[in-house]
Write a structure and sequence with these properties.
The complex is a heterodimer of chains A (354) and B (156).
Chain A: E1 5-12, H1 19-27, E2 34-37, E3 43-47, H2 56-71, E4 82-85, H3 91-97, H4 106-114, E5 121-124, H5 130-143, E6 149-156, H6 160-168, E7 189-190, E8 192-199, E9 205-214, H7 224-237, E10 247-249, H8 256-269, E11 275-276, H9 280-283, H10 290-304, E12 332-339, E13 343-351
Parallel strand pairs in A: 3-7, 4-5, 4-6, 10-11, 10-12
Antiparallel strand pairs in A: 1-8, 1-9, 2-3, 6-8, 9-13, 12-13
Helix pairs in contact in A: 1-10, 5-10, 7-8
Chain B: E1 5-12, H1 19-27, H2 36-52, E2 62-66, H3 72-84, H4 89-94, H5 97-107, E3 113-119, H6 122-132, E4 138-144, E5 148-155
Parallel strand pairs in B: 2-3, 2-4
Antiparallel strand pairs in B: 1-5, 4-5
The chains are: A alpha/beta (354), B alpha/beta (156).
């Protein structure tokens, strides 16, 4: 079995069109979400990428090329597997054009064409857990010698269906996301395109393991026993114990019920809880891209010593406070995403320089 | 798939006119709040498990579903709704493949590793599933709305 490393990463989000810009924005206190108006006149906060091209496809192409370039994946052979992870795919383009001719794989192949990618192309769509599941599959291929390297692209770009769908389900906050916050009242969605370039070649961050657990008992929320199973399976696959984890990036989207479910389940597995960090107050919940987007940003933060501010009252009842600064040492990091549709996914990263 | 032990392989193509009634009879009730594509996945998965002699999936087995059609019909409906008003929540949920996975998990009373994963090359999907699954194997389906549902239950 091969070890698998994170060779590079890229991110375009509301914080900026690359990770360097994102870190600067975080240091300066972050950005405010914009407003996205729907056909019925309602408007919701949305963290948007600063690119005002009105053509959905040309915007998506430009952003994706920049992010993939930032990850370093385009400098090599481009013949490994490419995983496109998204819950909305190109629905924004379909909304604009009214055309629904392509099948469910066609957008991933279009993206591969944008990148002149010559390897096999996969679509992964498991709602919010899409990018972590794509990462787990890419990890499997490299680990088993079926690929030398792989590119995971998480992509969620503006569209009415997603904002309207979440609005219709009454899952959105009308103001801002407050992960694990006392006054949390829902999610704020965000745009992101994120790239994770995986390779056999050793580098600082090793992908130690991970897990995916679906439990459909609550199609719109997290299931406590599934969160516990997820953490335990992710630890087991990484040959780690709970006390080995120094930092957890939970889902923590600002949902009243889900945040409480997650915090309680994490406390069942981790006693005491290690440091916690959330990035959704900075970039929003980027749905299918979230796993890749938050990992890319978190790793950049850890390497640069930059930390997202927590400028709101946290919910003491959760007994799961977000850390105000980066842990001095975080060799093993657990990143969780809990998804719409009963999906729960996690990966464990090892910082070999910690 | 040559080194796998195939417990069952079910292909329903073309679909019988009464497939939804068959599914409702098998489940004892009509599935609620899921779209036609998810219902077709459930129909094929249930047939395949029945053929394998399994009431549900073992805990450590995996579930994989692929489809070129996906829930595009539901997506088209929700896009039309979004064009003029706030989309209906159930229509939105039906446009997400994850809701099909949730429905399968719920109907099978099973918690485990389930993913919607697609590649134009069907063998690439099967090869990846082969690498990802453990000894308990995988239930893997290829489901095309209004046309066909094909499922394998395989293990080491």
């Amino acid at each position: 079995m091969n070890e698998v490393y994170l060779a590079g990463r890229g991110l375009a989000s509301a914080l900026g069109t690359d990770l360097g810009s994102a870190l600067v924005a975080l240091v300066e206190g972050g950005v405010e979400p914009g407003r996205f108006e729907l056909a019925d006149g309602s408007a919701w906060p949305l963290y948007t990428i600063a690119d005002d091209d009105s053509d959905w496809t040309s915007r998506a192409r430009r952003i994706t090329q920049c992010v993939a370039h930032e990850s370093g994946a385009l400098a090599g052979e481009r013949n490994g597997p490419l995983f496109l992870a998204s819950s909305s795919l190109d629905i924004g383009a379909r909304e604009d054009s009214g055309e629904f001719d392509g099948d469910y794989q066609s957008f991933a192949e279009t993206v591969a064409g944008w990148l002149d990618w010559r390897g096999p192309v996969f679509t992964v769509s498991t709602a919010c857990t899409s990018a972590l599941n794509a990462l787990l599959s890419a990890h499997t291929l490299i680990r088993n010698g079926a690929a030398e390297q792989a590119l995971v692209l998480g992509l969620e770009l503006r569209n009415r269906v997603t904002v309207g769908g979440f609005g219709g389900m009454q899952l959105l906050s009308a103001t801002r996301a407050l992960p694990f916050g006392e006054a949390r009242d829902g999610l704020v969605l965000g745009e992101a395109v994120a790239a994770l370039h995986l390779s056999r070649k050793p580098s600082r961050w090793r992908i130690a393991g991970g897990a995916n657990v679906v439990d459909g008992r609550d199609p719109a929320g997290a299931v406590p026993s599934a969160v516990v199973a997820l953490c335990r399976q992710a630890l087991a696959s990484s040959a780690l114990q709970p006390q080995d984890i120094a930092l957890i990036k939970p889902q923590a989207a600002g949902s009243p019920a889900n945040d409480a479910t997650e915090a309680e389940a994490l406390r069942q597995v981790f006693d005491p809880l290690p440091a916690l960090v959330s990035l959704k107050a900075a970039i929003g919940h980027t749905l299918g891209a979230a796993g890749a987007a938050e990992l890319a940003l978190l790793i950049a933060c850890l390497e640069a010593g930059v930390w997202p501010r927590v400028d709101y009252a946290q919910d003491a009842a959760l007994n799961a406070p977000l850390a105000g600064r980066a842990p001095a040492r975080a060799r093993h990091v657990l990143a969780c995403i809990l998804g719409f549709g009963g999906g729960h996914a996690a990966v464990v990263l090892e910082d070999r320089e910690s | 798939m040559s080194d796998w032990r195939t417990l069952a392989h079910v292909v329903v193509d073309p679909l019988p006119a009464d497939w939804r009634e068959q599914l409702a009879r098998r489940l004892g009730q009509r599935p609620r709040r899921i779209g036609a594509w998810a219902e077709l996945a459930l129909y094929g998965a249930r047939l395949c498990l029945d053929a394998a002699g399994e009431s549900t999936l073992p805990a450590r087995a995996q579930l994989r579903v692929a489809s070129l059609s996906g829930p595009l019909a539901a997506t088209r409906v929700i896009a039309e709704q979004a064009r003029s008003s706030l989309p209906m929540p159930f229509a939105f949920m039906q446009s997400q493949p994850s809701q099909m996975l949730a429905a399968l998990s719920q109907q099978l009373a099973w918690q485990g590793d389930a993913r919607f994963m697609l590649c134009r090359d069907k063998d690439a999907v099967l090869r990846l599933a082969r690498l990802e699954c453990g000894p308990a194997g995988v239930l893997i389906g290829w489901v095309e709305e209004d046309r066909r549902t094909e499922w394998w239950r395989v293990c080491d």
